[in-house]
């Protein structure tokens, strides 16, 4: 009777209507529960959150700010527990601190922000009757990784002069990780996390005079004098005039082993340095690992890494140690997309070309392998550290902000969220092409990339646009060929994930249709391909991150609730999740079907 009985397995729910409510809204028949909020205790001895008396020490033992990527893993020993891994992308000081003065932050505020960044590992108890997930404070697997945690630099650029600083003459040890956005799970059970907009933490790029250094800084968005958060006032490594190489030590994919707290997390230089959104690993048929990656900037690129060596199966110590070396040796490629319709038919309006599809072929251009560079005028070390410059030289395709990517565990096809690009087709910028077909692109698109002969390690691929996002009544949108009067509007796709049935789930950031962000499902096969349905919405000012879609759990990270113009600690833009009179707290939400049933069944 509910009108969705014919939907594909995993997608039988009544869609949520777009709204502007300060709440998480979920379908009929589902329940929601807050798993953990910014400031909730994680480590032994950490105090409960107290908005008015935060300290760096308490924050270092509590859940960090702005949860983004989530992984929900089996516990290695206890079947009644799960292991949650969360990124903490950035701190939002005016919303975090009473009386915050952005020109003169206190040392304590800055140190709290350092401790609010990074990652958390938190063991959760699972209630087998309701599906509720509750943190086990002080569990031996629980960890907080912050701006002060030690990382080892690995791979071909480790030890490069470009990575040496006065604190690290070897160029192999970095304290901290910054702006960790999306991520991915390796087939051997470690977590990859992308260091994205690291440029915002460094001061005084505008005072650098050497033209080569200046151009490199500019290509990574480093400019101006004081940094936004003024960290340089409290640690000289954030001042480029004192530590010119410190920014080169951020912008990497980091690998963390949530099951092995004794293993130092690694920055994997073989995967290149850019504004890493996330990483989508896949095992190739021959046992090598392939990692797909986006560089989230207008007109930046899409990449893949192919390992030299094969994964060893099994969960034993020897296999694990071997597999944790796979991302250090391999080839880094950047993508070139070519359309198959006449250029004259791609007019920037989003009107489908006469062959009825935005589609075409593509090639993977090799940039470097180990110590060997394939880019004229650049050493291999330079290719890894200044990867954007290398891709500029080889003619890669400038994309509409490549965000998260996920290969389908069923088919191996790769789904890339291109979130938007307000500058496409504007003066002096690249015009629309078949993969990025709308000028002043406000709503983004989803690319489906199919490796040729299904060979993930190969050099060529086919591609098409699964979705051209926006209001379905807008003629520039496309929903995989599905009738547009039967889909949910969707704008600014950011994170992508798969459910166990092979359906794609998409979360949004910055919905340009005037309603809150949310989480959407879309089938990829058969007659329902392209039928976008909204599963939930997040509170005012929040973006929807994380998503984890398992048989009986949907987890989302509601990031930066209340982040709207003019909002502050004193004048909050949201009171979620704690309710009237409280400040907003980024939180992880667990959605279950009533009775802990199967999602969408
Ligand atoms: Fe941190 Fe590209 O989103
Ligand atoms: Ca075409
Ligand atoms: Ca993101
Ligand atoms: Ca985003």
From TrEMBL:
Family matches, as PROSITE patterns? TAT (PS51318)
Q: Where is this region: Disordered?
A: 1-16, 422-443, 563-586
Source superkingdom: Bacteria
- Give coiled-coil spans as residue ranges: none
- The protein in question is named PhoX family phosphatase
Q: What is the source species? A: Glycomyces buryatensis
